[in-house]
Amino acid sequence: MNALPDGDNGPPSLSRTFSPEEVNMDLTMCGLLPDRAEEIARLYREHGNWNQVKDIWFEERRANRSTKGSSQKIYRVLSSRFKNAPATLPNPSELPAVLDTCSSSRDKAQVLYLYLVADDALVRYAVHEYARRLAEDFPEPLDFSNETLTSILNQFEYTDETPFDYADSTTERWCEGLRSVMREIGVLENQQTVVGDPPSLGDTPLLVAMGYSSEEGDEEWFESPTGLQYLFQPSARWEELYNRVAETEAWEFVELHGSLQLRPTDEPYASITSGGAE
Predict the structure, then answer these.
(1) Buried (b) or exposed (e) across 36-46, using 16+ Cβ within 10 A?
(2) Beta-bridge partner residues of 143
């Protein structure tokens, strides 16, 4: 296929992008937790009110004798990812329908992961750094060891140019939290592994990643597809992934100004939000 991008454009570094108030270490308290995140999303679809969702969540936790402090932290972090979800991702009220189209727990984790990256500034910074490395001519391995992660965090600066500064013990817990996320989405194989590979993408996370890429970017989004890069897809895979979605009824290639471009045939997530509701 001709006139497709060559994939040289990695995402920008996010160092000096965030203020200290925008950065937190929530990942030390709560990883991806797909099952609990899905439960919260389903409660929100059913009730449409975050106050009701919170009340029901804590009532169920009390019935299961979960500790109040732990439940509060988990709810705060997980619900934040949905409350702050950008309009470029499926609305949280539609998320259960999206998850219903997933064929595996990994598919669900990959969809929920995009909400984490969109919400958590420090996770997003780290993901950008790994995606930038993947875009290089000789990409480095996806090494999520404490040593590599710490070196990446130590390059981070706030908007006022002050450096990343957390206790070593907190940083180590954050690194373990990120590795747990990488295991959920299929980058790392098991708890002993710290070096991983780009994961394969199921149909639903691929459609969500494509929709997110097109909604986040400008008309040239396919030259640097944000969603695919967040899921660590190297540029060598993009053409294959573009062809996969073009084989569905949800996306199509169009020729514009002498080059091929990919466009959704309807609203970006219509095919999976309606499909999951049927």
Answers:
(1) ebbbbbebbbe
(2) 195
Q: Where are the beta strands (DSSP E) in the chain?
A: 142-143, 195-196, 251-256, 259-264
Q: In which band, very low, low, confident or very high, does the pLDDT at 1 lie, cut at 50, 70 and 90?
A: very low
What is residue 136's predicted lDDT score, i.e. its pLDDT? 87
Q: List alpha helices for 48-161, DSSP H.
A: 50-63, 68-83, 95-100, 105-119, 121-134, 146-153
Side-chain half-sphere CA neighbours of 11 within 13 A? 25
Confidence of residue 65 (pLDDT cuts 50, 70, 90): low
The pair of structure tokens assigned to 145 is: 């060891």
- Residue 4 is encoded by which pair of tokens? 């497709």
Per-residue pLDDT reduced to its tens digit, 228-269: 999 999 999 999 999 999 999 899 998 877 778 889 999 999
First to last CA, the chain: 35
Under the banding of pLDDT at 50, 70 and 90, the label for residue 127 is very high
